[in-house]
Amino acid sequence: MRSFISILFFLHVYANGEGAGLEILQSRKPCVGKYSNYKVIQFKTKSGKIGRWEILNTIRHPSPDNVNGVSAIVRVRNATGTYFLFNKQFRVPTQSWTIEFPAGVVDTNETAKEAALRELREETGYHAANVTFESKGRQPTFSSRTDDLQKHVLIDCQSTDLKQASPEDEELTYPLFIKESDLWHEIRRLETKYDIASNVYTFAMGIAIRDGLI
Ligand SMILES: *[C@@H]1O[C@H](CO)[C@@H](O)[C@H](O)[C@H]1NC(C)=O
Ligand SMILES: *[C@@H]1O[C@H](CO)[C@@H](O)[C@H](O)[C@H]1NC(C)=O
Ligand SMILES: *[C@@H]1O[C@H](CO)[C@@H](O)[C@H](O)[C@H]1NC(C)=O
Question: Among the atoms of ligand 2, which is closest to the Cα of residue 158?
Answer without folding.
Answer: 13
